[in-house]
Amino acid sequence: MLKLRTAPRGIVHRLVVESEVLKTNMFGDATARDVHVYVPAGHDGEGLPLLVDLVGFTGGGPSHTNWKNFGENVPERLDRLIAEGAMPPVVVAFPDCFTRLGGNQYINSVAVGRWEDFLVDEMVPFVEARFRCGGAGRRGVFGKSSGGYGAIIHAMRRADFWSAAACHSGDMAFELCYLPDMPGLLRTLSKHGNSVEAFLEAFESNPKPSGDDTHALMGLAMAATYDPDPACYMGVRLPVDPETCELIEERWANWLAWDPVRIVDRHVENLGRLKALFIDCGTMDQYNLVYGARRLHRALDRLGVRHRYEEFPDNHSGIDYRMDVSLPYLAKALA
Length: 335
Prior knowledge:
Layout: E1 11-18, E2 32-39, E3 50-54, H1 74-83, E4 91-95, E5 108-109, E6 113-114, H2 115-131, E7 139-144, H3 146-157, E8 164-168, H4 174-177, H5 182-190, H6 196-205, H7 211-226, H8 249-256, H9 260-263, H10 268-273, E9 276-282, H11 289-303, E10 308-312, H12 323-334
Parallel strand pairs: 3-4, 3-7, 7-8, 8-9, 9-10
Antiparallel strand pairs: 1-2, 2-4, 5-6
Helix pairs in contact: 5-7
């Protein structure tokens, strides 16, 4: 549903990236990856900044270019913001990074795949070569939830590559957003003999997986991402005892090594190189992510890292409207 019907409409190109780095993934996931690329009306892409959209868990980048009821998809939102003069023209890439376990945190994992390398070494160079956009100092990354996590962790690790980032309701403060799910995950696995393989077989054969099962799948995906064990099925080992749910400290430490709140001090120099860093979260976020966002905001203030932080009166769901704030902020910084 278009909010500004008079806005000139950009073009969404539907392309495929053939990946080499993803061939090592343990899931058998496809290495040919769709990437949709938005180019604004009146442009061929040359000389424009490039933004990359990282979607949340259970999503794929091309889902953001689909028709949307009672609202705009992201290309329509971009058409409107550009037509209104709220932001300068940009190229936006929407890569498909979906996996067999339902999602992605956009980092390298021996189990899930080398997703950081895919984005930085393959997908972005492919798009930039095709449309002559982006380049050093002209690249930004944004996302919500798992995509917000991807954006902030890339900002921390790869400021040599990205120059701006926006994290909407990103995963952080892992003890608040992940550990509370562990008892439920164990209960779900207990229905399948505590077997990840049996659970996944049942999930994939179920024509209508439940919400609880999908949430359990997310927990398995996080384990395979942050603390993969190639000796385990799908690389999944949990950070808790399967019978008592007691924390296994050495495994949990591997998770915390990827928690933005825990590692921000190590990445001050990188974060300080960014032209723009945007972080927000809903005050009623049902996954407790606002508390992690506040912790990160305080740490960035303490460390003297320039950033824009906002909270808004909403939860974790249906918050694409926040792109009206973040996308102009990134685009203006990169223009």
